[in-house]
From TrEMBL:
GO cellular component: cytoplasm
Homology family: Belongs to the AB hydrolase superfamily. AB hydrolase 2 family.
GO terms classed as biological process: fatty acid metabolic process
Protein name from the UniProt record: Acyl-protein thioesterase 1
Organism of this sequence: Boletus reticuloceps
Molecular function GO terms recorded: carboxylic ester hydrolase activity; palmitoyl-(protein) hydrolase activity
Keyword Magnesium in annotation: no
Alphabetized InterPro entries for the sequence: AB_hydrolase_fold, LYPA1-2/EST-like, PLipase/COase/thioEstase
Protein purpose: Hydrolyzes fatty acids from S-acylated cysteine residues in proteins with a strong preference for palmitoylated G-alpha proteins over other acyl substrates. Mediates the deacylation of G-alpha proteins such as GPA1 in vivo, but has weak or no activity toward palmitoylated Ras proteins. Has weak lysophospholipase activity in vitro; however such activity may not exist in vivo.
Reaction catalysis annotation: S-hexadecanoyl-L-cysteinyl-[protein] + H2O = L-cysteinyl-[protein] + hexadecanoate + H(+)
Enzyme Commission identifier(s): 3.1.2.22
Biological classification of the source: Eukaryota, Fungi, Dikarya, Basidiomycota, Agaricomycotina
Domain Phospholipase/carboxylesterase/thioesterase: 43-237
Keyword annotations: Fatty acid metabolism, Hydrolase, Lipid metabolism, Serine esterase
Length: 298
């Protein structure tokens, strides 16, 4: 049986945990393959004006690019020049879920996301795929500074890896070329490969606008992992700390407040949402929209 967490504010239904009957050893053996998405490599939402910028947004575990189409349609009118690329992760066996096959950018060896067990190969393979999508946009005439990579949950983790890394000392890489991107947006994600990440950072890391947002009541990817991501980026890697705000889930009746006005500047904006779970709440989406409007000015 599949359990979906359905969230308010017109947010997509995000699969957060799947459980089912014990599977046979044969089915688990067959599930070790990585299977390309049957939906194709990605969904595209075309700009309504001249195309001058691209957002590559990565879904979470068990979801698909189409799961975010409704969200994109909610905010795209204020970003008419932006093309949205919503990649579909391949299906793979998820160890933490007893080998259940589902769309995922990488395997999860355990539900405890703060441990040292990580699917390094899966993460790096997916980062190379995202790197190719960035290269395709650049080849089509969109400067890398006009591209934002973002994602939710597992997709947010991949946005960090693909958007903020270059070739590492040990030959590992996320974003092979160390792109100078317009920005990176991480919604309810966590820092990947924290031991190797410092050796892989892009030379443009400290000048890249970064948004990290997280619900304080997230029980799937705990808020503490968002705080840890913020600490690693600022304390260990020298990214300027612009703001650390805790906001309501909902936009107040008085209207949207941009906080200290630093959202979208080079450096890190860390925003927490009071009592929000593993979801893209109303304020999260408004902050994402405002971030994109600032880093991808028309």
């Amino acid at each position: 049986m599949v359990y979906l967490a359905v969230f308010p504010h017109s947010c997509p239904s995000i699969p957060v945990r799947l459980t089912g009957p014990n599977q046979s050893s044969k089915s688990l053996t067959m599930a070790t393959r990585v299977i390309p998405s049957l939906k194709g490599p990605y969904e595209v939402v075309k700009p309504s004006a001249k195309h001058t910028a691209t957002v590559i947004f990565l879904h979470g575990l068990g979801d698909s690019g189409s799961g975010w189409l409704a969200i994109v349609k909610m905010i795209k009118d204020e970003l008419p020049h932006v093309k949205w690329l919503l990649p579909n992760a391949p299906s793979r066996s998820i160890t933490a879920n007893r080998g259940f096959v589902m769309p995922g950018w990488f395997d999860l060896p355990a539900w405890d996301l703060g441990n040292k067990q990580e699917d390094r190969d899966g993460m790096l393979d997916s980062a190379r795929t995202i790197d190719k999508y960035i290269q395709d946009e650049v080849n089509a005439g969109i400067p890398s500074e006009r591209i934002v990579v973002g994602g939710f949950s597992q997709g947010g983790t991949m946005a960090l890896l693909a958007g903020l890394t270059a070739r590492g000392e040990d030959g590992l890489f996320g974003g092979k070329y160390g792109w100078k991107l317009g920005g990176v947006a991480v919604l309810s994600g966590w820092m990947p490969l924290s031991d190797a990440f410092p050796k892989m950072v892009s030379p443009h890391l400290v000048t890249t606008p970064i948004l990290v947002s997280h619900g304080t009541a997230d029980t799937v990817v705990p808020h503490s992992l968002g705080q840890r991501t913020s600490r690693i980026l600022t304390n260990d890697l020298g990214v300027p700390a612009l703001e650390d705000l805790t906001l309501s889930q909902r936009i107040p009746p008085s209207g949207y407040s941009p906080g200290e006005g630093k959202l979208g500047a080079p450096g890190l904006s860390f925003r927490s949402y009071r009592s929000a779970g593993h979801e893209a709440c109303e304020q999260t989406l408004e902050d994402l929209k405002q971030f994109l409007m600032r880093v991808l000015l028309q």
